[in-house]
Amino acid sequence: MKKRYESIEKPDKCPKCGAPVYEILYGLPVVPEEEYFNTCHEHVIYGGCCISEDDPEWQCSKCGAEIYNAKHIPFTKKDAFAKLDAMLSEEDKKIMTKGDSYEYHFTLGMWIRNNWIYEQNEEYIKRLAEIFGDDSLFFEPDDLSDRIIKSYQRHLRGLKKKMQG
User: Fold this and answer.
1) How many Å apart are CA 109 and CA 117, to the nearest integer?
2) From CA 19, how far away is CA 58, in angstroms rounded?
3) Percent of the chain scoring above 70 in pLDDT
4) Phi then psi for 126, rounded to 5 degrees?
């Protein structure tokens, strides 16, 4: 599995090899691709016209390492778990399998509320709530972040059982 690199802003250098990092441009250019990138955007990497919910934002000009925006907001449980997996150390994950979700309310829970819940549109919050099993009409950010943490802990415990079995 290749390592997932993340950054809140465009890094100056590749975290893997130290070479310059370029922005990835997605979409369809209106002029021939070669002409477009040679004249207008010489320090841009063409990402293609197919865009998914979890695409890297930057790429190394030398080794091709992809760097994702750390502010990325998940749209699926798998996406949320991948983000948390990349963000947390193996030791943190090990500790989380043993603890209760309330222990993380002012740490990981606050990060989830600040980055995934607050200042998002209502439709996104509703979708996030549905993904994590809250079908109520009103969403309390504290309750939603707690549901996400509990779900992630179940995910980690399931992975641990699979690894032992």
Assistant:
1) 10
2) 12
3) 79
4) -60, -45
Residue 163 CA, chain-centre distance (Å), reads: 24
d(CA 47, CA 57): 9
Question: Do the Cβ atoms of 135 and 129 come closer than 8 Å?
Answer: yes
pTM: 0.58
Question: Which tokens go with 85?
Answer: 């997996």
Tell me which residue has tokens 């190394």. 60
Domain ranges of the chain: 5-69, 77-164
Beta strands in the chain (DSSP E): 5-7, 21-26, 44-48, 58-60, 66-69
* pLDDT, tens only, 63-111: 999 998 876 678 789 889 988 988 888 888 999 998 888 888 888 998 8
